[in-house]
Amino acid sequence: MKFKEFMDALDGGIKNVYLLSGEENFFIDKAREKILEKLSVDRATELLTFDCDAKPAIGEIISAIDSSPFFGTKNVVLVKNATFFNSEKRIERLENILKDMQPTNFVIFTARAADKRRRLYKIISQVGAILEADPLRSWEIDSWLNEKLKSLGKTMRGEARRHFNERIGILPEISLWYLENELDKVALNVAGSEITAEDLRKNMLAPPEVSNFALTDAVDEKKFKKAIYLLKQQARVPAKIPLVITLLVNHVRRLIRAKFFMAQGITGRRLGEPLEMNPYIAQKLGETAKSYQTELLEEIFIELSEADFKLKTGRAGIEILERILFKLCRR
Known about the structure:
Blueprint (H helix, E strand, L loop, with lengths): L2 H8 L6 E5 L3 H15 L7 E5 L6 H9 L8 E6 L11 H8 L5 E7 L7 H9 L1 E4 L8 H12 L2 E2 L1 H12 L6 H13 L5 E2 L1 H7 L4 H4 L1 H8 L3 H12 L5 H23 L8 H4 L3 H11 L4 H19 L6 H12 L1
Parallel strand pairs: 1-4, 1-5, 2-3, 3-4, 6-7
């Protein structure tokens, strides 16, 4: 189950076995806490936690899952970072226990990944529930954002939505903990019910990737002086230069792909699907791509690769990127 379906199912009743699997820790953390809340767990007497990164004995984990409550009315075991969901080796004792759990016993497994073909996975899908905690992409964020705004008692419309999408649109993956914390901060500083674009600008801290977004924006708008100024600002911290190059490479690659799909007749917001981007951002990228020649973009793509190598090996300075920005702005 995906996150929302999983969380809604918890309101309908608690099962004895759960697997929370995937790379998005935000979803896993929220689901785990809601399960424990629904169980009304006394964490001092009824909860036992194992972290498989510390390599506890599998026999010890199994015994804990099968033990009767000692101090409290229930026995709850949390097994973090479980690796046996990808193991070829069967753990028959664990399988048998999970198929016939004591009604007072509950177990929550978390795993960075889980193989759906494994017998253990299939057993949990039959007797319990499984959360698929996949990371959200920028084009999938709207439903999560709507739920978050609802919980805050806030709204976000028009320009604010566009500004929000632009800030996260260039990220290959979204950190939901980052967004959660930043939106909480914004909400605390907004007196009314509506969050505006100006509220976001004043209160929402941008990650490095989004801060650099201003650089590609300046290039697309042919504002060479502004682009150079932003580049030099980043160059004050040498460690940021590889990030700038990565951003420029990704931007040029997206422009090339946008031009390819538009040549196939895919335009406007329909570009969102093949580009795997928020439809609004994809539409804007498509409009921007019209001002570039494919030959120039392909040439710049190669030059950025060479610049990356020369900068890392000390064979060139920041001026090599300045020349690339000049060529892009001069188009």
